[in-house]
# Entry
Amino acid sequence: MKTLPHITTKQQEILKLLYRYRFLNRIQIQAFLHHKDKGLSSKWLKDLKEKQYIAWIYNADDFAEKTKPAVYYLDLNGIRFLRNLDDHPEEELRKRYNESSRKQAFIDRCLLLADGCISMDARTDDADNGMTYEYSLEADYLGPDNEYHFFVENEFIHPQLCYLKTEEDEDDIVEMHYLLEIFDATTPRYMVRKKLKDYVAFLDSGDWEEGTAGAELPIILVACPTLAELIYAKRYTRKQLEDIERDDNEDFCIRFTTVEQIKAHGMTGGIWEDI
# Structure
């Protein structure tokens, strides 16, 4: 077995973050590591890149692109390192070999999800608001011990992000689950329709109650690339809900926003519109 170049514990954490989120920029990596020293973070990343643990997306020849932080993803030695840990599914690790050919829409979605998770971490760390967030990405719920693991075999949906919001005051504790789906500008409308129909079918299937031992139905969050697509998605989803023949489908909660609203106000901001 080839001996891999030495890296520090913090650098190992960076590899695990890139496995989990797929693509991250330096600012996001610093936020997840709770590390404020830009110079040291850049040194870690430079060393990882030189040792082929990570690769980057950065165009130094374009002035506009040059002003943006580089985006990092796992390279060959990073994948080999994680394989040696023996706690990452082989099928999922194989996907990381193709990161260099991912489309920009996929990369942008990964960065948006990371920003959303950073926002939830910040709100959880704010002890004064009485709210905490626990979240799982698809790479997380592939693990058999994850509470959302039942989505791996679900015939309807595979959410891009699942999270639990817990709100606590002096008298009560309220928990609510959320499932997020982000559509980008390249998602064809037939796929938008299929996914929305599948989310409605999932809510009606009983799979959630079975997978969570009877937890209250989750709130579905749908992010659309434009306002026009949001209006289209809301109209189509409303029609799907109207076609369900059951008395309690008014309990199905599906909310919508645009990607720009998430960028501006965070995942947990007051940006979500009911159907």
About this structure: The first helix runs from residue 9 to 21. The CA atoms of residues 14 and 29 lie 7 Å apart. The beta strands are 24-25, 54-57, 71-74, 131-137, 161-168, 173-182, 219-224, 253-258, 273-274.
